[in-house]
Every structure is written in C-alpha cells, then in structure tokens.
C-alpha cells in the first residue's frame, strides 16, 4: 500500500513539474541575423545636444544611455543611475551612478562624465537648451556668462546632484529623454567624436555607410542585455521600404505611422497604438501674410482637416486642437464657434511637405487644389527631410507639414514651444499671455492646478491659430512576422525598447508565424 | 470461473478497493468545484472592491486629462496585483495596463454570469468593473474601469488544491482501510475461539468459556450452546437411567422366565423324592438332580445380578485387570469365532482409577463381542493413559459403522441385526460409561473398521 501511495505522489509531482517545465520553455532562441529597421532618414545629428528629429532620437536611444529611461507607459526607470532621490525642498536631485555602467570603449562611467554631458545640452550651441532651463545657472551658462554650470555637480566619483531654480518634478522626464545622454567626458570634446560616437547604450556603432548604420549588441551593457546581436538602421523612403518589407528584406517599419490598410500588412504584424503627437500645418507668423492673426484663422478654417485625415490617415483620431489626447489641454470636440470668413490675401503662401511620406505628391496636390478652390494663393513644395529641418531651424519655412510630438509626458514641453524666448519656437509668436501662463504653471506644485493652467495655455495657443491641426496619429507599426516582444511606446516611437525585441527562430526557420 | 473461497482479510480488501479509488476521486472533484467557486467568489469580491476603491482617483485623472499619470497608475497597480486594468471612456480604451495597442480602440469584453458571483467570467478572465466616478465629480464621464484577473492563475491554484486533496485523501483512506481490515481481522478472532470451543464441546461435553470472547453476540451464542449442551447431557443421563431400568426389568423378566424351568424341575424332583413307592435309585438320582438344579439356579441368579443392577459402586481400582477379565469373558462367550485374533495392549504405567468392575466389564465385553462379530481377522483392545484420564479403545478390521448411526446406537434407538450375546448392546455400554462420568467416542479404527473409545476422566 505504501508503494502505491508513494508511486501516486511521485507521479503527481512529476506531472506537475513537467507541465510547469513545458510552460517555461520558450520558442524564441537567439538567431544571429541582423535586425533591419528602416528609418525615413539618417539621423540629422549624432550629438544629443543638437537632436530635434525622430531619426536622431531613435539612434540616440539605441547607442546612448541617460541617467534615466522611459517605460512603455510614460513611467521612468533606471538608466545609468542606480538610484536617485529628491531633496525635501524639491530643488536638488541626487543620482547614484551604477558601478557596472561602462562606455562602449570599456571605460567606467563617472560623475564627471555626467557633469560634462549635461553641461553640453546647456551650452550656448545647444539646440535643446529649452528643456533644461529649469536647472540652476542654466541661463548664465547658456549665455556664455559663466564657464561652469552651477546646477550640476559631482559629489564623488559615482554621485551627481542636479539643482533646480525651483521645484520642477518633470525634470526627471527630461533626464530620461533622448537628449540627456551621457557621453565620455574625455572624448566628447574631440572634433571627430561624433563621426563614430561612443555611448553607454545597449548597442554600439560598428560601421556606417551611405544608407546603413550598423549597430552591434554591447556585451558589457550594465542593464537588460539586448536579445539582438546586430541591428541595422537603414535610411530609405517609405515607398521603397514597404516594397522591401513585403519581400522580407526589412524587419521594422515603425518609423512611419502607417494606417494599417497598406499592402505590406498582408504579410507581417500590425501593431497599432496611440502616440502623443499632432500632425499640423505649422504657420510661421514671422512671414507675411501669416503674421496676421485673421489670415491665420482663415487659413486654419479653410484647411479641411477631416477631409485630409479621411483621405490619407483614416485610422488616426481627429484633431480639434494642438494638444494630443490624454494630455491636459486636449480638445475633445469640434468648437462650434465659426471664425469670420475673410477674403484670402493675394500674397502667396508656400506649404512645405517632407519627401519620403508614402503619398507626398498626393498630399501636396490635395492642399494646392483644396485651398486654391477656396481662393488661396497656395504653392506646395516637397523637400528632403534634412533640407526641410535645416530650413525649419532657420525659421524660413512659411507653412509646413510636420508631426509635433510631445517630447516628454507633460504638456509644458509641448506648449513651451510657443514661449517667446524659445529658440525652437517655429511660429515666431511673441505672446505675453502665453509667457505668463508658462511661468505661472511652473510655479504650481499642485498638479491639478497646474493642469488647469495648461488648459488655459492650450486654449490661448489654439486662439492664436498657429497651426492647422490635421490629426492625432494612431500609427500602425509594420513588424516582420518573426519578430517578438516589440512593444509600442506611448510617448514616442523613439523610446521603443529594442533590448527586448528578438526573433522567433522557429518562425524564421520554418517560415511559419 | 472458479470462485476461490477468500479469507476474511482478502474479502475485506477486495470490497474496500472501489472506495479507496472512488472516494478520493469524488472528494477531490467536490473539493475542486468548491475551491473554484470559493476562489471565484473571493476574487470577485476582492477585485470589485478594489476597482471601486481606485475609481475615484481614476476619475480625477480622466477629468484632468492626465493620460500619463493614469497610464502609470494603472500599470503600477496592475503589475503588483498581476491583473489587467483597462480604462474605457466613450466606449474607447483610454488607458491599458498591459497592452498599449488597445488604446484608442473600441472595447469589448465578453463574459458570462455565474450564480452568486458579481463579476463576469470569460474563458480567460474574471472581469470586474466599476463606473469611472467620484463623489462630487462630474456625472458626465461616460467611463468604466475593467479589472481582468487571469482565471488561469486561479484555476492552477484549484488544480493544485485538487491534487493535494486527492493525494491526502488517498493516503488517508488507504491507512484507514488497512486499519479497518486489521481491526476486523482482530474482531473475528473470538469467532475462531468460539469455533474451537464448540469443537471442544463435541469432544468432552464441557469446556471453559474463554474469557477473551468479549463480544456480546458471540458470548450469547456460546452460552446458548452451553445451556443446550448441558440440557442435552441431563436428558441423556435421564434417558440412560430409564434405559437402565428398562434393561433391569427385562433382565428380571428373563431371569424369572429362565428360573421357571429349573424351579419346575426342582418341584418335580422333590416330588419324586417325597413320593412313596419310587425306587431308591431314582430317588438318589432326583436328590443329585436337586443339587445340580439348585446349583444352576444359583448360577443363573448370580449371572443376572449384574444385569439387574442400575447403579455403580466404584470400589475397584485396577483398570487393566478389569479390561483383561472383560475381554476374556467376551472371548469365552464368542468361542465360535476362534479364527479371530484378539490383540490386547496395556500400558503398564496406567494409574488406578475408581470404577465398578462388574458394570464397566460388561460395557467392555459388549464392545469386544460386537467387535469380534464385525471383524474379519483381528480385534484390538488397548488401554492408554491420556493427559486427562484414560482411553479404553476397542478396534476391529470390519466394515465399520456409518458415523451418523453411531449416536443413534449409543442412544439405543438404532436397530442392530446382530444377536445379543452377553451384553446389552451399545446403548447399555454407553449408559454404564456415562454412569462412570465418561463417554464413548466413535472413530474410524486404524485397522480399517470401527473403533469405540471409552474415555474416563481421572
């Protein structure tokens, strides 16, 4: 009888163990083929302090590492920093650097690297200064009045403090973002550093060609080790990319927000989500006739955003304001107030459309036709992305089709684009109400009160008609059928965590999904 | 199919097998259902109160359009609770803890109602929901919070409980069954004792009640048997006594009948002696004849004396001597059967035992006469000392007697075809032996025929 009892018990245990073991087994073994991610252009810059476009941010997230990182859901987690704490007055944040963190050249990361790297983004030549201007001494340093930045200090080899002018919790988002990357202090000053940059991110740069940037897994990466051994960023236009993807030559078209109806989706995965962005025709108020609020309002009213959305991006959400959904200041319904119809001015308005969208030509034709019919003297031009960004920065574009992403999960970062002192202010608007509201919002510690100010701010921006808001994208990411663990990021496509992405070897070998 | 007779233990084991399997299975199935239901009720209540508790905060986050915070909040609590939380507004998902791709899409989740459980149950999830609202908040938010608790986790718990219950109940029942069998086994030991006691009864008519019976029913049976037995003994003794009297009367009648002729002859002879004119030689012959007849009468009366006796006087002691004499008498009486060899075996160490020489001798003679009549070649008379008492056995090599008939013969009810020589038959012998406090046991003799064994207790 004892034997029966023992036998039964063991059999049961073995069965349970077997089932558990089977469940644990994964069918995603490593496969040593390069993962090819198509991008609409090569990064405009490899220097985080100069980055203002998606392709650069994608590169930055893969190769560089900041003190912090974003989660998929707007949260923050550890990057190079092992831990961090905020002082009681909310003004000082102390970061402890992970002792395991290393640069791609095998050098350990020290506090001085952090000080030098974060000072660079506040240097006079930085294009991303605006995000960091809450740091103590930022303005003086940016203006070149001081040689050192008083707000960022190395306490010891592995400890850094960031001191703020006043408490501003969203600074943590900035430090998790694509421009707050840590570079080796002793190398970054070299003239040729960004020809083959060294970072501390999960992938290191191996080589670069005209179209490809080849990245390899960094074996000594301190965090979650990447599953892919090689990742290639390939610059390609959307049309060609979709053709190549169809033939299985590309694995990832996530840098284009597709609408899910494209041919390429017949074979592959359709991963769709929302991202915090608004596609707009930005109006440059520096150039006549868009310097006139009435003209801007009239043009805004003439651009049929819903017709445009339904024609080109039917799966996207309609935009009734500048702020995307899920953020304070977002407008949920079409305003019933009709602006006065004025006779369009005779002077010509040029709308610039970036080259590389699937239907660039059709989009250009749409605006030209639709607006001309409404009496506008409209011209459209299609520009290569790099050229367009150059002109964007020079503020010489008249009206232009861009996607405005929320750089950080706080409305502040979207609306401070319109601050009169923001060098990145595409609209060139100088509005005291906006400036005052921005200042008062920053002073408010109560989140809900601050959000009320953001709502006012968003209303003011909408009133000033600085853009025709086309839609909030709901991108469909095309991913090769054998790719696993691709998780969309709610903040921006640049923050997708490629450390987790891997191939399903069974699928690759067997051709089955 | 041959059905083997099972021992009590085997029988019990066989009968308990279905219970050993069926009971744990039933028990674990019942437990599984109960555990599953209890878990569902528990988790449903838990989830519902939880989702209601977070509803006001979620409502605030929705009102202030704080998408990032809403997203972070539900992700963090869902991770900790290992559930999925989706927040719906105007039938569209606005935040999801585990799947960003759901956001902005219509939401539909289907579940069924289970009696007594407030949450819905789908194939994968236990679905609890609450309206997105807070006290004093706007009533216009058309939103719901869904909390999806993976049922797989719950049911793996149920399966674990079921397996544990099965194993435990299986072990428990097996231990219990073993215990029941061994107890049952023990409990029938007194039955064996009873059986032995009954066997003893057969042999000696009287046996001590074993003190370890201890089971009321068995003791009742035993005492019933004992009572019946002692009543039978009394009846038997009475019967033997009556038989004895009857035999005495018969012997008396026979004696009277037998005396009739010699007494008549005596009367005749005395007449001759007293009659005048009878020649003297004739008178002398009559005188001699009177003496002879008187002698004969005396002999006959003397011979009948034993037959008339109905009580014993145990004044003699030497058993061997009495048996020898009785055997000799029987042999003389059966002088016609001269080809039958009579073997006598005596143990020299036989102790003395009080008995009535004449009466016991008659019983033995009877048995020996019967044996000579029945045998082919040999009759054996043996006296043995037993642990308790003495055995006097008379065996032959004849055909033997049917065992069932023996008790009838012993009671004097059977009909024998043989002529009644010296003795009184088996019933008489039995009577005499019983008067001595012994009994006659019948068995098959080692010579092939019958063996009557007189057992006397010391």
Word description of this protein:
The complex is a heterodimer of chains A (513) and B (458). Chain A is α+β, with helices and mostly antiparallel strands. Chain A contains 16 helices and 22 strands. In chain A, β16 (349-354), α11 (360-373) and β17 form a beta-alpha-beta unit. In chain A, α14 (432-443) runs antiparallel to α15. Chain A is globular. Chain B has three domains: 8-175, Beta-Lactamase (2-Layer Sandwich), CATH 3.30.450; 216-308, no CATH class; 319-456, Heat Shock Protein 90 (2-Layer Sandwich), CATH 3.30.565.10. Chain B is rod-shaped and about 175 Å long. The A-B interface holds A 1, 4-5, 8-9, 12, 16, 71-75, 271-274, 276, 317, 325-330, 409-410, 447-448, 451, 474, 487-491 and B 60, 64-72, 75-76, 94-95, 97, 100-101, 103-105, 160, 163, 166-167, 170-171, 174, 178.
DSSP strand (E) fraction of chain B? 5-15%
CATH C-level class of the largest domain in chain A:
Alpha Beta
Radius of gyration of chain B in whole Å, from Cα?
52 Å
Average pLDDT value of chain A?
88
What is the topology, as strand order, of the major beta sheet of chain B?
2-1-6-5-4-3
Strand order of the largest sheet of chain A: 15-19-14-18-16-17
Write the layout of secondary structure elements.
The complex is a heterodimer of chains A (513) and B (458).
Chain A: H1 2-24, E1 35-39, H2 54-63, E2 65-66, E3 68-70, E4 76-78, E5 81-86, E6 92-97, H3 111-120, H4 129-132, H5 138-142, E7 152-156, E8 159-163, H6 171-176, E9 181-182, H7 185-188, E10 203-208, E11 212-217, E12 230-235, H8 238-246, E13 269-272, E14 277-283, H9 293-302, H10 305-312, E15 317-318, E16 349-354, H11 360-373, E17 378-383, H12 385-394, E18 399-405, H13 411-415, H14 432-443, H15 447-463, E19 467-472, E20 476-479, E21 483-484, E22 502-503, H16 505-510
Parallel strand pairs in A: 1-12, 16-17, 16-18
Antiparallel strand pairs in A: 2-9, 3-4, 5-6, 6-8, 7-8, 10-11, 11-12, 13-20, 14-18, 14-19, 15-19, 21-22
Helix pairs in contact in A: 14-15
Chain B: H1 8-63, H2 67-81, E1 84-89, E2 92-96, E3 112-114, E4 117-121, E5 125-131, E6 143-150, H3 151-187, H4 189-204, H5 216-274, H6 280-308, H7 319-333, E7 341-346, H8 357-374, E8 378-385, E9 390-396, H9 403-410, H10 425-435, E10 439-444, E11 450-456
Parallel strand pairs in B: 7-8
Antiparallel strand pairs in B: 1-2, 1-6, 3-4, 4-5, 5-6, 8-9, 9-11, 10-11
Helix pairs in contact in B: 1-3, 4-5, 5-6, 5-10, 7-8, 8-10
